[in-house]
Every structure is written in C-alpha cells, then in structure tokens.
Design a protein that fits this description.
- This is DUF1801 domain-containing protein.
- InterPro entries: YdhG-like.
- There is one protein chain.
- This protein is an alpha+beta fold and 130 residues long.
- It has helices spanning 4-11, 15-31, 99-111; strands at 36-40, 43-48, 51-58, 63-67, 79-80, 87-91.
- The chain has a single domain, classed as Aspartate Aminotransferase, domain 1 (Alpha-Beta Complex), CATH 3.90.1150.
C-alpha cells in the first residue's frame, strides 16, 4: 500500500509531473508490495529490509527515477548517478515511461542490492547483499 505521504507528494506536482509520479508509484508499489515506502529526504523511496532500493524525485525539467543499485542491473537505458552504484532514468512526460522496462528494473531492484543501509557504519564502503 502506498504511504499517504507519497500520494500527497504526487498530488502536489504539476499535472504532467503528477501523471509521471502516479504511474511510477503504482508500478513500483505493485511489484514491491511488501516493501516499506515513505518520504525520505523529501522524496518517495521504497525500502527492502531497511535498504533503499528505488525512489523518484521532481527535478526542474523532469522526474528522476533512481535505483540505488541500478549500475549493477546491466541496463543501457539507466544512466550512472553519483559515485556509488546508483543509476537513473529521467522522464519529462508519462508517455516516455516504458512500463515493460520499468517493471524489469523494479524486479532487479529486489534481486540485486548493495548495502546502503550500513554505508555510514562502513565508512562509505558498499557491500553487495544480493
């Protein structure tokens, strides 16, 4: 079930971005129905066993979908983000979302995980969980 704070986040966006956020949250939550989801650092994020796996955020010109372990998914349409293992896809309209790709990526977010939950305790060292 999608946390009410995420629904509020989606509803606060402009119509075109709201459509993107609503579709993303629906597909993510449908596949990760057992995951905890909440607003984390002001953005919707889904967690498995306390580990962040996928989320999205509104940028100036798009909505960024972020997979914390996405660089390990071997997906050409996901672009490297940051210095760890994250990868992203940006959407300017709902029509840009390929639902088949998105579902595959969300499934990979469950199967392929790096331990972000303990990254501070390990002083920035990431260890692969799955």
């Amino acid at each position: 079930m999608i946390h009410p704070d995420i629904i509020d986040y989606n509803n606060q966006q402009m119509k075109s971005d709201q459509d993107i956020c609503t579709l993303l949250s629906s597909i993510i939550d449908g596949e990760l129905h057992d995951a905890e989801n909440k607003i984390w650092h002001r953005h919707p994020v889904w967690f498995l066993e306390g580990n962040p796996v996928v989320g999205y955020s509104k940028l100036k010109d798009s909505v960024r979908l972020l997979f914390w372990s996405g660089q390990s998914f071997d997906e050409k349409d996901l672009k490297t983000e940051g210095t760890f293992k994250a990868a992203e896809k940006r959407y300017a309209s709902k029509e840009e979302i390929n639902e088949v790709d998105l579902l595959r990526w969300v499934k990979k977010s469950r199967a392929i995980q790096w331990d972000y939950k303990n990254i501070v305790k390990r002083k920035g060292e990431l260890i692969r969980l799955k």
